[in-house]
């Protein structure tokens, strides 16, 4: 800065830019400094060195801080008043030709950026995202450990399979036929820590789910994982509100607590989803009474069913173009309308639906169709220039009173846990658990931010008997796999509950990144590959031998066996 004028300084950094052997801009992650290359004979060696160094080379320069000539100041740079006149310089590592320019606005394909992730990490945006992430996590640690007495405990990542839930990665062991599983979350361990008397646990926990390729999921991701003894739902909610408020970055404004709360039923009825984006209106409204007086045949058909209703969303800001159709103000939308107005949309969104839109009573399905239409309409309105969802506004929302069980997607006659099998029933519905489990609400809560699920947790079952009933009688799972947990619940397990925040997603929303990959230093591709190190990789039959494993090659790959090639970026 100008306060340093006259001082001799030594700077280390990367060459961001170099111009005609006259000056260069040196970068480190504090910022940029302009360096003046000496032109006199006595410094010809320094001049040659710096003029020939390619951009992104790492250099040391030593020189004197001077004021820039009048009129040449750059008010946009914190160092814009000064420059450093070089005396001596050294190239510490010359940079070969770059596969892409390290500027945020010249983004090459993401596959190439992932292959050279260490170069992409030099960009301003990734630097900012990762540094902010680190600061937020540090504040979270402070809040939990220093202000609230939490204990940071690491739990194993080599464990065994858990019934239900996400698909887990397997890790072979040296015992023939036996495998570890990488945990989808530390759920069992954190509950066992409660039995162990560590009554306030937290962990920045790595979780693994082998769920294939989804644009905004990663096979390994991070949770802020929390569990507490002697707590109720409100206790966890207030803790999380305080945690987010404490760790919220100043530059993103402030957030107000307590967060509003909505029941699962309300969320589905008003927004058609269990993670409503409450930044804008366009709620689903029931217009059955209004339309009962109409003579529209398909509407009358729908209303003639016992619980038949007609629902609509109102798109207030005028006309939106949608597949060359106009939805005008106060558009009425039910499944029939959708089928008529958006040919193919209904069937592509609900390909398996057996419900013929105009002949069935409106249903949950209809609400979620309207929920998707609401979001699609918002996208279209925004594309047309209307701002509905200000990216600097953060709407947190608790969604509560979920059902404890939902029909399995693949076989609706069987039930699965809406959250996970350790979730306790709502206290007023406990007796229903034994008579009609489909009617039981749970003590499960989700945290939603701007229409994204950023956290979820529950008060847990702490009675072995109830836990066994849920596993065996309701979920029809083999409870033997969980015998250690069931046994632990019989040794004086305290009532307990917890939550996990999806850190990657939370940070990506805070920095307004298009993908969670932008807040992870070394993310995987859609197909779960590391495009830089080329993982997963082949191993030799000899390396597999101790694990008693043989690869049975699919026919197509057998032909190229022995010639494993680098992943084609096309297939990433
Ligand atoms: N383990 C749960 C999850 O990963 C969170 C919780 O119930 O605390 O979703």
TrEMBL record:
One Pfam family of this chain: tRNA_anti-codon
Alphabetical keyword list: Aminoacyl-tRNA synthetase, ATP-binding, Ligase, Nucleotide-binding, Protein biosynthesis
Protein's GO biological process: aspartyl-tRNA aminoacylation
GO cellular component labels: mitochondrion
Keyword Protein biosynthesis: yes
Superkingdom in the source lineage: Eukaryota
GO molecular function: aspartate-tRNA ligase activity; ATP binding; nucleic acid binding
InterPro entries: Aa-tRNA-synt_II, aa-tRNA-synth_II, aa-tRNA-synth_II/BPL/LPL, Asp-tRNA-ligase_1, Asp-tRNA-ligase_1_N, Asp/Asn-tRNA-synth_IIb, AspRS_core, GAD-like_sf
CDD domains: AspRS_core, EcAspRS_like_N
Residues of the Aminoacyl-transfer RNA synthetases class-II family profile domain: 130-523
PANTHER family registered for this protein in UniProt: ASPARTATE--TRNA LIGASE, MITOCHONDRIAL (PTHR22594:SF5), ASPARTYL/LYSYL-TRNA SYNTHETASE (PTHR22594)
Similarity comment: family membership: Belongs to the class-II aminoacyl-tRNA synthetase family. Type 1 subfamily.
Name assigned to this protein: Aspartyl-tRNA synthetase 2, mitochondrial
């Amino acid at each position: 800065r100008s306060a340093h004028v006259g001082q001799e300084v030594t700077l280390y950094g990367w060459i961001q830019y170099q111009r005609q052997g006259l000056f260069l801009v040196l970068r480190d992650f504090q910022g940029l400094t302009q360096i003046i290359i000496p032109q006199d004979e006595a410094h010809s060696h320094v001049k040659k060195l710096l003029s020939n160094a390619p951009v992104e080379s790492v250099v040391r320069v030593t020189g004197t801080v001077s004021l820039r000539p009048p009129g040449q100041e750059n008010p946009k740079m914190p160092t814009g008043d000064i420059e450093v006149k070089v005396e001596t310089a050294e190239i510490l590592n010359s940079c070969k030709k770059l596969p892409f320019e390290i500027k945020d606005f010249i983004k090459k394909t993401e596959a190439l950026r992932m292959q050279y992730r260490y170069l992409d990490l030099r960009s301003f945006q990734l630097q900012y995202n990762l540094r902010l992430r680190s600061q937020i996590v540090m504040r979270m640690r402070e809040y939990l450990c220093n202000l609230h007495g939490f204990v940071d405990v690491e739990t194993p990542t080599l464990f065994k399979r858990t019934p239900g839930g996400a698909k887990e990665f397997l890790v072979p062991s040296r015992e023939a036929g036996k495998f570890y599983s990488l945990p989808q979350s530390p759920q069992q361990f954190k509950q066992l820590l409660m039995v162990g008397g560590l009554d306030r646990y937290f962990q920045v926990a790595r979780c693994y789910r082998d769920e294939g390729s989804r644009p905004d999921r990663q096979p390994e991701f991070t949770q802020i994982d929390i569990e507490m003894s002697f707590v109720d739902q409100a206790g966890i909610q207030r803790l999380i509100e305080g945690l987010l408020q404490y760790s919220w970055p100043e530059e993103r404004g402030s957030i107000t607590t307590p967060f509003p709360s909505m029941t699962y039923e309300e969320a589905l009825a008003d927004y058609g989803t269990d993670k409503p984006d409450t930044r804008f209106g366009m709620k689903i409204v029931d217009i059955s009474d209004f339309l009962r007086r109409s003579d529209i045949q398909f509407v009358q058909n729908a209303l003639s069913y016992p619980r038949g209703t007609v629902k609509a969303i109102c798109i207030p800001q005028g006309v939106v173009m949608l597949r060359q159709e106009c939805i005008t103000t106060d558009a009425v939308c039910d499944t029939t309308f959708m089928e008529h107005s958006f040919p193919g949309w209904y069937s592509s969104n609900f390909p398996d639906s057996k419900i013929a839109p105009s002949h069935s009573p409106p249903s949950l399905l209809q609400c979620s169709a309207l929920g998707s239409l609401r979001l699609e309409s918002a996208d279209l309105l925004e594309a047309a220039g209307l701002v509905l969802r200000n990216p600097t506004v953060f709407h947190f929302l608790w969604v509560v009173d979920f059902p404890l069980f939902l029909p399995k997607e693949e076989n609706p006659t069987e039930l699965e846990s809406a959250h996970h099998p350790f979730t306790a029933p709502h206290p007023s519905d406990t007796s229903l658990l034994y008579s009609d489990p489909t009617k039981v609400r749970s003590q499960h809560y989700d945290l939603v931010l701007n229409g994204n699920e950023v956290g979820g947790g529950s008060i847990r079952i702490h009675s072995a008997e109830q836990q066994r009933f849920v596993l065996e009688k309701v979920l029809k799972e083999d409870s033997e796999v969980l015998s250690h947990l069931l046994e632990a619940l019989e040794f004086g397990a305290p009532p307990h509950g917890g939550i996990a925040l999806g850190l990657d997603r939370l940070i990506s929303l805070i920095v307004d990144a298009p993908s969670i990959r932008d807040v992870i230093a070394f993310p995987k591709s859609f197909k779960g590959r590391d495009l830089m190190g080329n993982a997963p990789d082949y191993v030799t039959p000899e390396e597999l031998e101790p694990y008693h494993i043989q690869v049975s090659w699919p026919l197509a790959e057998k032909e190229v066996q022995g010639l494993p090639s680098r992943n084609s970026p096309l297939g990433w």
